[in-house]
Amino acid sequence: MIKKMIALTGSQSGMGLAFRLLLEKSGYDIIGIDLPGKGAEVEGDLSNKQERIRVVCDILDRCQGKLDGVIANAGVDNSNVRLVFELNYFGIIEILEGLHDALASNGNTRIVITASNSVVITPSIPETPVVDLLNHNLDAAISSLGEAHSVAYQVSKLAVVRWMRSHAATARWAGSGITMNAIAPGAVLTPLISEEAKFIVGQLIVIDGGMEAAWREKDWPSVWNIPMDEFMKKLTPACQ
């Protein structure tokens, strides 16, 4: 029986190592991606664009163009805003885009992105740098963040969650048999969403011991303020 193959960024320490050990115990083959010298199968600095391109090529060589899943786990909280944005945002979306065809070729694959519960409990995360990242404008995002360096991490994680939400249910991703979700852990170790979770698409799953629910109790679910005619336009194609 051929083992399923998972690419895992940040594979050699912390949550990434916990993912790795759990998946290997469950019989998966892991292509670990981490910084040089840490012992990963693929070494590279995902905060550097040229390195991201090379890492994608190395992963594709190792998996021979077919992957069963990706855990985009690598991330950092640092006073260097450029580093944070490069790794936490571009280091996720560019790796996933680069591996899209290898995932689509298997037709029933999974992506899990490690976000953070900070995106749902941190007050007043600035919107403009989030939008700048979603527009792929790194310099504008750094500029619009200004002196608010302490929330660079939250900005980067919110941007990647919004990227996930806007792409997950599209024909390119879900339509290719790729389910993509993000987890928002607090200070816990969290396992990969299982095979039985293939109907979960585009969700941010908060795993924080109830912190968000206790702090924001009635904020979610919120009322969807959409005109009925716009709602019917969305509903009608699903009924045909």
What's the arrangement of secondary structure elements?
Elements: E1 5-9, H1 14-25, E2 29-34, E3 42-43, H2 49-63, E4 69-72, H3 81-104, E5 109-114, H4 118-121, H5 127-134, H6 138-145, H7 152-167, E6 178-185, E7 204-207, H8 211-216, H9 228-239
Parallel strand pairs: 1-2, 1-4, 2-3, 4-5, 5-6, 6-7
Which features would summarize this protein structure in a list?
7 strands, 240 residues, alpha/beta, 7-stranded parallel β-sheet, 9 helices, globular, single chain, Rossmann fold
The biggest sheet amounts to: 7 strands, parallel
**Mean pLDDT, rounded to whole units?**
90
Question: In what range is the share of β-strand residues?
Answer: 5-15%
Fraction of residues in H or I helices: 40-55%
What is the rounded distance between the termini? Answer: 40 Å
Provide a count of the helices: 9
Q: What would CATH call the homologous superfamily?
A: NAD(P)-binding Rossmann-like Domain
Description:
The protein has 240 residues and is α/β, with parallel strands linked by helices. The protein has a single domain (5-209), classed as 3-Layer(aba) Sandwich (Rossmann fold). The protein is built from nine helices and seven strands, in the order E-H-E-E-H-E-H-E-H-H-H-H-E-E-H-H. Helix 1 (14-25) links the parallel strand 1 (5-9) and strand 2 (29-34). The termini are far apart.
